[in-house]
Amino acid sequence: MGDASNRLLKLRPVTFRYKQAEEDGRHPLQYGLIAEDVAAVMPELAVYNEDGTPESVAYQVLPSLLLNEYQKQNRRLVVSEAELASAKSTLSRTEQRLQSVEAELAAMKAMLMTLASAQSAERMLASSP
Fold first, then answer.
1. How many CB atoms lie within 10 A of CB 4?
2. What's the rounded Cα separation, in Å, for the pair 57 and 48?
Protein backbone atom coordinates (compact mmCIF):
# COMPACT_ATOMS: atom_id res chain seq x y z
CA MET A 1 0.00 0.00 0.00
CA GLY A 2 3.01 2.24 0.54
CA ASP A 3 2.19 5.91 0.77
CA ALA A 4 -1.49 5.56 -0.20
CA SER A 5 -2.52 6.27 3.37
CA ASN A 6 -0.36 9.39 3.86
CA ARG A 7 -3.30 11.67 3.13
CA LEU A 8 -5.28 10.23 6.04
CA LEU A 9 -3.48 12.71 8.27
CA LYS A 10 -5.12 15.54 6.33
CA LEU A 11 -8.63 14.29 7.10
CA ARG A 12 -10.51 16.06 9.85
CA PRO A 13 -12.59 13.85 12.13
CA VAL A 14 -15.71 15.52 13.47
CA THR A 15 -18.59 14.96 15.84
CA PHE A 16 -22.11 15.68 14.65
CA ARG A 17 -25.77 14.91 15.17
CA TYR A 18 -28.09 13.93 12.33
CA LYS A 19 -30.91 16.41 11.78
CA GLN A 20 -33.39 13.56 11.43
CA ALA A 21 -34.10 11.95 14.79
CA GLU A 22 -33.83 8.24 15.44
CA GLU A 23 -37.00 6.20 16.01
CA ASP A 24 -36.95 7.06 19.71
CA GLY A 25 -36.59 10.79 18.96
CA ARG A 26 -32.96 11.06 20.06
CA HIS A 27 -30.18 12.80 18.19
CA PRO A 28 -27.13 10.92 19.51
CA LEU A 29 -23.62 12.22 19.03
CA GLN A 30 -21.95 10.68 15.98
CA TYR A 31 -18.31 10.47 14.97
CA GLY A 32 -17.08 10.56 11.42
CA LEU A 33 -15.87 12.56 8.48
CA ILE A 34 -17.54 15.12 6.25
CA ALA A 35 -17.95 13.65 2.76
CA GLU A 36 -17.04 16.91 1.00
CA ASP A 37 -13.83 17.23 3.03
CA VAL A 38 -12.93 13.62 2.29
CA ALA A 39 -13.57 14.16 -1.44
CA ALA A 40 -11.18 17.13 -1.43
CA VAL A 41 -8.38 15.14 0.27
CA MET A 42 -8.98 11.54 -0.83
CA PRO A 43 -11.56 11.43 -3.63
CA GLU A 44 -11.28 7.63 -3.84
CA LEU A 45 -12.59 7.38 -0.26
CA ALA A 46 -15.75 9.42 -0.97
CA VAL A 47 -19.03 7.95 -2.15
CA TYR A 48 -20.72 10.10 -4.79
CA ASN A 49 -24.39 10.45 -5.69
CA GLU A 50 -25.78 10.44 -9.23
CA ASP A 51 -24.94 14.12 -9.62
CA GLY A 52 -21.29 13.45 -8.77
CA THR A 53 -21.59 15.21 -5.42
CA PRO A 54 -19.90 13.62 -2.39
CA GLU A 55 -22.64 12.03 -0.34
CA SER A 56 -20.92 9.69 2.08
CA VAL A 57 -17.61 8.14 3.06
CA ALA A 58 -16.49 4.60 2.23
CA TYR A 59 -15.83 3.83 5.90
CA GLN A 60 -15.22 0.16 5.09
CA VAL A 61 -11.95 1.20 3.37
CA LEU A 62 -10.63 3.15 6.37
CA PRO A 63 -9.44 0.20 8.49
CA SER A 64 -6.97 -0.96 5.82
CA LEU A 65 -5.62 2.56 5.36
CA LEU A 66 -5.37 3.07 9.11
CA LEU A 67 -3.58 -0.26 9.53
CA ASN A 68 -1.05 0.77 6.88
CA GLU A 69 -0.39 4.05 8.71
CA TYR A 70 -0.13 2.23 12.04
CA GLN A 71 2.41 -0.21 10.60
CA LYS A 72 4.46 2.64 9.13
CA GLN A 73 4.43 4.45 12.47
CA ASN A 74 5.42 1.25 14.24
CA ARG A 75 8.41 0.78 11.91
CA ARG A 76 9.48 4.36 12.63
CA LEU A 77 9.08 3.74 16.36
CA VAL A 78 11.27 0.62 16.21
CA VAL A 79 13.99 2.58 14.39
CA SER A 80 13.70 5.47 16.88
CA GLU A 81 13.92 3.11 19.84
CA ALA A 82 17.08 1.53 18.37
CA GLU A 83 18.59 4.97 17.80
CA LEU A 84 17.70 5.99 21.36
CA ALA A 85 19.27 2.82 22.79
CA SER A 86 22.42 3.51 20.79
CA ALA A 87 22.52 7.12 21.98
CA LYS A 88 22.07 6.00 25.59
CA SER A 89 24.91 3.53 25.22
CA THR A 90 27.15 6.22 23.70
CA LEU A 91 26.22 8.59 26.51
CA SER A 92 27.01 5.96 29.13
CA ARG A 93 30.44 5.28 27.58
CA THR A 94 31.11 9.03 27.35
CA GLU A 95 30.17 9.50 31.01
CA GLN A 96 32.53 6.68 31.99
CA ARG A 97 35.35 8.23 29.96
CA LEU A 98 34.65 11.62 31.55
CA GLN A 99 34.82 10.10 35.03
CA SER A 100 38.12 8.46 34.12
CA VAL A 101 39.53 11.73 32.77
CA GLU A 102 38.33 13.59 35.87
CA ALA A 103 40.01 10.98 38.10
CA GLU A 104 43.25 11.32 36.14
CA LEU A 105 43.03 15.09 36.36
CA ALA A 106 42.50 14.93 40.13
CA ALA A 107 45.52 12.61 40.45
CA MET A 108 47.63 15.01 38.36
CA LYS A 109 46.53 17.95 40.50
CA ALA A 110 47.49 16.02 43.63
CA MET A 111 50.90 15.23 42.12
CA LEU A 112 51.41 18.88 41.15
CA MET A 113 50.46 19.99 44.64
CA THR A 114 52.93 17.49 46.12
CA LEU A 115 55.64 18.61 43.69
CA ALA A 116 54.98 22.29 44.41
CA SER A 117 55.07 21.59 48.13
CA ALA A 118 58.35 19.70 47.77
CA GLN A 119 59.88 22.50 45.68
CA SER A 120 58.78 25.04 48.25
CA ALA A 121 60.37 23.00 51.02
CA GLU A 122 63.57 22.71 48.98
CA ARG A 123 63.73 26.46 48.49
CA MET A 124 63.20 27.00 52.17
CA LEU A 125 66.00 24.60 53.02
CA ALA A 126 68.33 26.13 50.43
CA SER A 127 67.79 29.64 51.74
CA SER A 128 68.34 28.79 55.38
CA PRO A 129 71.92 29.31 56.76
1. 13
2. 9
What distance in Å separates the CA atoms of residue 111 and residue 105, rounded to the nearest whole number?
Answer: 10
The residue type of 53 is T
CA separation, residue 100 to residues 78, 89, 96, 103 (Å): 33, 17, 6, 5
pLDDT tens, 19-40?
Answer: 999 999 999 999 999 999 999 9
Neighbours of 61 (CB within 10 A): 13
**Residues β-bridged to residue 48:** 54
Asked whether the beta carbons of 99 and 35 are under 8 A apart, the reply is no
List C-alpha distances in Å: 74 to 77, 85, 114.
5, 16, 59
Asked if 52 and 28 touch (Cβ cutoff 8 Å), the reply is: no
Count other Cβ atoms within 10 Å, centred on residue 47.
14
| Contact (CB, 8 A) for 47 and 54 | yes
Q: Which residue has the higher pLDDT, 79 or 127?
A: 79
